[in-house]
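We emphasize that the prediction below concerns an isolated chain of 203 residues; any contacts that depend on oligomerization or on bound cofactors are therefore not represented. The input was used exactly as deposited, without trimming of termini.
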Amino acid sequence: MISAAVTGFFTSISLILAIGAQNAFVLRQGLLHTHIFTVCLFCALSDALLIAAGVAGFGYIVDLAPWLPTAMALGGAGFLIIYGATRIYAAWLGTYAMQIEGNSAGLWPTIGVVAALTWLNPHVYLDTLGLIGAVSTRYVDNSEKLVFGAAAVTASFVFFFSLGYGARLLTPYMQSTHTWRILDFIIGVVMFAIAAGLLRPLI
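Result of the prediction step, given as a token string:
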């Protein structure tokens, strides 16, 4: 049981640690001090659903719908390009009075963005349904498989809430327009890079 728990936790945390669109958004909300709990909870619950599906053996969905990865890649890349462009444009404008005061978009627009960054990202499905689901197959006993999945879900909750609330430690460095411009520019570049990675296999 302990082995299954350790494997599940560290498999999940190692996959989530990579800097991606979702993580960058959680970090940004943490720096803004707004909607942190909701955003972190949404990301963690989304991961929990996908991890549960992967461990339960729903990875065969892709075999039933071979067009799905391509559709997700196109949709995800399109959204990432648009979102990345908005961040580059924001960096170019340099109007960050609201951000410096700790304000951001409303709750529902924020949830809409994080939902798109989460559910339109094919890498999320690869990591959860694919990789975590594949690792879980080494456990034949249902109780061990359950412990593995629970530990993987726990890792997701630990990571997202640590990232969201831990971002507050950077607040003293985020009190200038120049710093926010750099952050948004980096986020925009990351979005473009991820979109390019999604499109490359299709070209």
